[in-house]
C-alpha cells in the first residue's frame, strides 16, 4: 500500500514532497541501484585498469593542461553511464498514482503561490491605510 507521499512503491520507491515552484522526487532506491551498478562495473576487467589509471593520476602535475579528449575521467564516466540503468521504470497503476500525486502537489503549490501573491498587495494596502 502506498501513502500520500509515496505514490510509487516499486520496483523503485519514489517519494514526492511539494515545494513552492514544483515537486521534489526522492529516488534514493534508484540511485542506490545505479551506484551499485557503477561499483560492479568498476570491478570488471572492462573498467578496472582504467579506474586504476585514474587513481595513479592523482600524483600528476596539477598545472598540466589537457584537452577534453585527453581526460580519462570524462571518458570513463561516459562509458559507465552507457552500461548502468538510467531509466526509472514506473508500471501500471503506479503511473497513474504518480501522475495524480504530482498533479495534486503542483496544484497545491500554485494555490499557495496565488494566495501569497494576493496577500502581498493586501498587506501593502493595509500598510498604506495605517500611515
Q: Secondary-structure blueprint of this entry?
A:
Layout: E1 15-19, E2 22-26, H1 28-42, H2 45-57, H3 72-83, H4 92-130
Antiparallel strand pairs: 1-2
How is this structure best described in words?
It contains four helices and two strands; from the N terminus they run ββαααα. It has a two-stranded antiparallel ribbon with strand order 1-2. The protein is mainly alpha-helical and 131 residues long. The model has no long low-confidence stretch (mean pLDDT 77). It has helices at 28-42, 45-57, 72-83, 92-130; strands at 15-19, 22-26. Helix content is 60%, strand content 8%. The termini are far apart.
Summarize the structure.
The chain has helices spanning 28-42, 45-57, 72-83, 92-130; strands at residues 15-19, 22-26. It has 131 residues and is mainly alpha-helical.
Give the C-alpha Rg: 24 Å
Distance between the termini: 56 Å
User: What is the H/E order?
Assistant: EEHHHH
- Order the strands across the largest sheet as they lie in space: 1-2
Helix count equals 4
Taking pLDDT < 50 over at least 5 consecutive residues as the criterion, the unreliable ranges are: none
Structural descriptors:
131 residues; mainly alpha; two-stranded antiparallel ribbon; 4 helices; 60% helix
